[in-house]
Amino acid sequence: MTHNQKRVLDFICARLKANGVPPTYEEIRQEFGLASRGSVHAVVGRLVEDGHLLRRHGRQRSLALPAIFLGDIPTDRLVAELERRGWRKAA
Q: N or C, where is the chain less crowded by C-beta within 10 Å?
């Protein structure tokens, strides 16, 4: 993994942990001062190919972490995101 790939992956992980959703390609582009979203697509594509990220096709903000990293996301943030999407806890 290159230094830039590591920086982008760390940024995506931090945003997932903080907000429960990944950054957009435009947000990644702005964070790292990349010339275009195509540059972001190339870096993210390589992270997906190498298994560091998953891409959920047909969805906005489609980036996700492999399941092994989900334990790093605080439970309260996961529950909040599920509730935001209409999920309710069983009584």
A: C
> Domains in the chain, start-ordered, CATH in brackets?
3-84 (1.10.10.10)
Q: Which amino acid is at 5?
A: Q
**How many whole angstroms separate alpha carbon 44 and alpha carbon 5?**
8
7-21 burial: b if 16+ Cβ within 10 Å, else e: ebbebbbebbeeebe
Closest by alpha carbon to 24, among 50, 58, 54, 60? 60
What does the pLDDT look like over 38-84, one tens digit per residue?
999 999 999 999 989 988 877 778 888 876 555 666 778 777 777 87
The backbone region for 57, taken as left when phi is positive above 0, alpha when psi lies in -120 to 50, beta otherwise, is beta
- Longest CA span, the chain: 50
Please give the model's pTM, rounded to 2 decimal places.
Answer: 0.69
Count of residues in the chain: 91
